[in-house]
Amino acid sequence: MNPPEVIGLLSKMIATPSLSRQEEGTAQLIFDYLSEAGAAPRRFRNNVYALSENFASSRPTILLNSHHDTVKPAASYTRDPFAPTIEDGRLYGLGSNDAGASAVCLIRTFLDLRTSSLPFNLLLAITAEEEVGGENGMRAFLPHLAEEGIKIDCAIVGEPTGMQAAVAERGLVVLDCLTPGVTGHAARGEGINAIYRAMADIESLRDFKFPRQSEILGPVSVNITQINAGWQHNAIPDECKWVVDIRTTDAFSNEETVNLLRDAVKWTTLTPRSTRVRASVIAESHPLVKSALALGCQTFVSPTTSDMSLMYDFPSLKIGPGQSSRSHSADEFILISEIEEAIVLYRRLIESLKLG
What we know:
Blueprint: H1 3-15, H2 24-36, E1 42-44, E2 47-51, E3 61-67, E4 85-87, E5 90-92, H3 96-113, E6 121-127, H4 138-147, E7 154-157, E8 165-169, E9 171-180, E10 184-185, H5 194-207, E11 221-229, E12 235-236, E13 239-248, H6 254-264, E14 269-272, E15 280-281, H7 287-294, E16 299-302, E17 316-318, E18 333-335, H8 336-351
Helix pairs in contact: 1-3, 3-8
């Protein structure tokens, strides 16, 4: 298991700034670490990956994935975010919890098992730009794997979950809404007020009931979060712009969700910024979930979004050391004991897995 070596790798990652879209340093660090371990890593942009020995397309393939990019350090840090420090059993530093600990534990697990005679392939991928949903992270990496002829059957996604099993997370669609009106002088009551039209359409969305809901994720949530209209007090506004935050579920595709809401409004044009962040649900009957439950893990619905939302073609389970509440916070840390526990549990989860 060698926790000191794992902690040493994580400390080096913390000391190497890896803000989203600026992960060249940690990508090289991880690549070199895997190379020295004899794992023959590959690199696609800032995504580093490796295949288990005797990789065969005739066997199922399990993706072991986490990310090595971080958010910017919070302004309220009292420590140097890039100075790894161990105090009272805690390793402090930016990215220690989200998701450096998951990344190094999955790396160690892969290295321990890559030459084992498992009935499936392992594909380790420590990817970039997760925190921003960037175009050079998982969005580019999965098509790259397809071009290489590598098919993924299921995935373990390392994120801070307290080593409990997140079986679902909601998707996200943000709508930019434009409601037209006709300008006129307010004193004479001329024109058509775009704000009033927008208010009516907002009310329609607030009261809208979707025809069905997800068994696991419940109803789709729709919230109006921004609104802007008018330019002076005595002019009837001829345009009202507003924003809708939608947390989607597996009951409808993101595109279906948008179309249902479009049908619910009368005057407004609804334009999604993107529909790629989809809801993710893995069935309770899936072998990954069964193995996690057999090891004493609890299942739950994750309140946060991860690269699971981009894994459209195969089921994924989110599980990793640390706590989501520490993510993106000042003086971020991971417990050394959490790293030790994760290495053991990841290995047991994979070795007990029965695919097929």
